[in-house]
Amino acid sequence: MRSINIYLCIILLTVACKKEDDLGDVSTIPGLGGDTWAATAIDNWIRDTLTVPYNVAAKYKWDQGELDFDKTLTPPDEAKIIPVLSSIKKVWIDNYVAEAGKTFMQKYIPKFFVLVGSANWNIDGTITLGTAEGGRRIALYVLNDFRTKGMTGYVPADSTNVIMMFHTIEHEFGHILHQTVMYPEDYKRISVGDYTSNWNNTTDAEANAKGFITAYSQSSPDEDFVEMISMMLSQGKAGYEAIVNGISNATARNKLRQKEVIVVNYFKDVWGINFYSLQTRTRNSINALIK
């Protein structure tokens, strides 16, 4: 029996890859020479605005290999690429540069952006709006819903999608920061015992009543930390204060204030950033897009 198995293995190895097999024209395979194109105005804008000053690449040409193969996704509308990336630069990059310096952003900004037109739906009914991988790559979804003041078809309700975009970016960059230098362990003890994998079965209001800034904050201390960052920045001081002051439970309000203090001190002590100043700049930039 053993000799038969060896014999079969030899036959399989022999027929699996013959030297004379014709593999065809490999230049037609994406990534092996078949995906070249002449630089467009979009490519030149990305080069001059992001690649040269920050060594950042943004991929908007469709490549399913960059994304989950089990998800149904759509390419971004090319008419949205420059408006989206220009807004990202104004709201996110420029404000961090103003507070922390260009060298900080050149060092910590993700070097590769993958842009997707549609949402990334999960089997539990939730939506992934963005992902950050190893501090080097960010995938952004739902670009085709992005419309700001002055763009064709813009209505005030679109401001929700704009704010959601920057919430996502600030969230993912918050991960990059804490993965570089961890936030204080004291943060994890504020809501210890209240974190849950069933966060998607609760509302933001219910999460607020437990001392969380959003429902997703309940998923883990890391997510809680970056949700505090992203909500405080994207909502601005007035929006954040409205959330906290709208909570009737004094214990829950106190937990959020404790988390706020740790976030603000973390930015100051670790990165030398005045968080409240960054918060004001960020929200003012968002307002300029939607008001």
General description of the model:
The protein is 53% helix and 7% strand. By secondary structure, it is of the alpha/beta class. It has two domains: 39-162, Collagenase (Catalytic Domain), CATH 3.40.390; 181-291, 3-Layer(aba) Sandwich (Collagenase (Catalytic Domain)), CATH 3.40.390. The strands form two sheets. A four-stranded mixed beta sheet has the order 1-2-6-5. Strands 3-4 form a two-stranded antiparallel sheet. A hairpin with a 5-residue loop joins strand 3 (120-121) and strand 4 (127-128). The radius of gyration is 23 Å and the shape is globular. The protein starts with a helix and ends with a helix. The model is unreliable at 1-17 (pLDDT under 50). This is Substrate import-associated zinc metallohydrolase lipoprotein. It comes from Niastella caeni.
The structural domain count equals 2
**Fraction of residues in β-strands:** 5-15%
- Note the run of SSEs as H and E: HHEHHEEEEEHHHHHH
- The value of Rg in angstroms is 23 Å
The beta-strand count equals 6
Looking at the overall shape, the CATH architecture of the largest domain is 3-Layer(aba) Sandwich
Enumerate the strands of the largest sheet in spatial order, edge to edge or round the barrel.
Answer: 1-2-6-5
Shape: globular
CATH topology of the largest domain: Collagenase (Catalytic Domain)
- Mean pLDDT, nearest integer? 86
Structural class: alpha/beta
The CATH first-level class of the largest domain comes to Alpha Beta
Q: What is the straight-line distance between the termini?
A: 78 Å
Protein name: Substrate import-associated zinc metallohydrolase lipoprotein
Pfam families: Peptidase_Mx1
